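Complex 316.
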Amino acid sequence: MPISVVTGGSGFLGSHLTDRLLKEGHEVVAIDNLLTGNERNLDHLRTEKRFRFLRHDVTKFIAVEGPVDFVFHFASPASPIDYLELPIQTLKVGSLGTHNALGLAKAKGATFLLASTSECYGDPLVHPQKEDYWGNVNPIGPRGVYDEAKRFAEAMTMAYYRFHKVNTKIVRIFNTYGPRMRLRDGRVVPAFVGQALRGEPMTVFGEGKQTRSFCFVSDLIDGIYRLSRADFHEPVNIGNPMELTIMEFAERIRRLTGSKSTIVKKPLPVDDPQQRQPDITRAKTILGWEPKVLLEDGLRETIQWFQANLDTPGRA
Ligand code: UDP
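Predicted structure with uridine-5'-diphosphate bound:
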């Protein structure tokens, strides 16, 4: 039975990945300091014998007893609001945390998979984004703490691959949505869905002309699982190429929730990328992967989950 360590295991993606690994027969050790993760995301695993939780900050040495076959490094604040509020922690987990997670993989002879991000492309001047594009990132802007930490994490991962011969993989994750997102993490999906369900004004930043492409979480996790087993070491984009403007997205959520919310415009955050769409040719070729869940279907499931959790204490 393979043994996997998932850092950030209590987070949105970490917890879904944990579920998938358990389903595939793995034993899973989830590690999280609960800075932005939520224990409730793992509540359903309390009686699962193949699952262990360690409360630990991965910027400190990571001690795991016994053999480990895979290390999935998913720990990091991941919403623009979170990393603006936690700039040093974001930089530390992307740099020191990645170093420790790579060190664990090296010591155990484990495969390592880094959760990287489309933010590596910054405010991209090439569209759609292919993995060989080096990006347009402002290192000293407010998003720099996340973007540069993840770019450093990629560099560190490739150094462990080339120098220490660790079997590493890098996924560049594009905007993803689904159940277990934090209701108030400031990202556009929880923001719009929460506002629409409460009948509050929906806050579109700028003119809403900026674009994003949204991938449902089950599709994303499937791409990541496939990548963990593939013999490929350069970054792979995983995301849904279906691109929408944020204004179109707000209108779609309003329609699907049947909400009467108005739409109000708020200032555009500094360095907010104007357009984003993954080129997924590499994932298709190497992993035989492409997204399957239609936006409407994924949003319906997400809206239902938010509706059920809107007033749950500890879900905020
Ligand atoms: N956005 C918005 N209203 C909100 C939250 C976000 O218009 O209440 C916009 C934001 O400016 C960005 C897009 O939605 O252009 C996606 O933002 P998110 O915070 O989800 O993540 P990003 O893709 O910027 O990392």
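The mean pLDDT is 96.
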